[in-house]
Amino acid sequence: MSRVSTTPDGLVIVDKPSGFTSHDVVAKMRGIARTRRVGHAGTLDPMATGVLVLGVEKATKLLGHLALTEKEYLGTVRLGQNTVTDDAEGDITSATDASGVTREAVDAGIAKLTGDIMQVPSKVSAIKINGVRSYKRAREGEDFEIPARPVTVSSFQVYDMREAEAEDGTKVVDLVVSVVCSSGTYIRALARDLGADLGVGGHLTALRRTRVGPYKLDRARTLDQLQEDLTVMPIAEAAAAAFPRWDLEARRASLLTNGVRLEMPDEYEHGRPVAVFGPEGKLLALVESKGGKAKSLAVFA
């Protein structure tokens, strides 16, 4: 006789610790929540900390759609050194005195990396090239290229710029930056490309994700806190925060959950997910408008 899960459906907003992969956090959460049905809405590099959105039970159906939302970061870019991974995890491959870099040059470089840009991900990223993870090809010493991809950097700002001396004696410049960007943007690639533009090289030394879509650090909990008190954002609240809301009365709610493709109001954008709620605020489904009618993306009722 199978055990009925008592874990509530919803999202868990984790403040990921440094040194953990996103998969490590999922594995830990499976133990805390006592369920195998746990997934994440987009990865966060092991070095990075901050907001990692997990879905538990039925909320795993939301994750693929949440992964496409805007993200916000705070980080530190070191100018004057390149690394094999474009961040502090990898070995240094070159070093150049960066003490002559001016704030004006930095601002000009950042301007080129703001807006709709084409970005080449790091070779040690999880991008698949012909079905094989890029980092696996890199570890095996394979020579390959990753095609540039369109991303949007809606904000890239420098809060502090200070000179320092690296362990190898190189005069470097550290920039404390904030970035707001589309899903799929690599902050370490921004650091690499800024350093390349300035002629001194660059890599990321620290990164903290402060927001994924509407979910911010103030809602995040550490794994230790979640071990003591599992805080799950109810699935209806999570969907209402992330997607436009469409409320239906009982008759049309019943039609929708029975597979009828209802006419959707014009206010909902074509192809954008919409959360559908029935009487008493129950989340029924995630739909999108196709030809003016509701096409189900995920059903929860």
UniProtKB/TrEMBL annotation:
Domain of life: Bacteria
Record domain tRNA pseudouridylate synthase B C-terminal: where: 188-229
Keyword Isomerase in record: yes
Catalytic activity: uridine(55) in tRNA = pseudouridine(55) in tRNA
CDD domains hit by this protein: PseudoU_synth_EcTruB
Keyword Transmembrane: no
Segments crossing the lipid bilayer: none
Keyword list, A-Z: Isomerase, tRNA processing
Enzyme Commission identifier(s): 5.4.99.25
InterPro entries membership: PsdUridine_synth_cat_dom_sf (IPR020103), PsdUridine_synth_N (IPR002501), PUA-like_sf (IPR015947), PUA_sf (IPR036974), tRNA_psdUridine_synth_fam2_C (IPR015225), tRNA_psdUridine_synth_TruB (IPR014780), TruB_C (IPR032819)
Alphabetized NCBIfam families for the sequence: TruB
Family membership: Belongs to the pseudouridine synthase TruB family. Type 1 subfamily.
Chain's role: Responsible for synthesis of pseudouridine from uracil-55 in the psi GC loop of transfer RNAs.
Name this protein carries in UniProt: tRNA pseudouridine synthase B
Organism: Streptomyces antimicrobicus
Organism taxonomic ancestry: Bacteria, Bacillati, Actinomycetota, Actinomycetes, Kitasatosporales
Name of the coding gene: truB
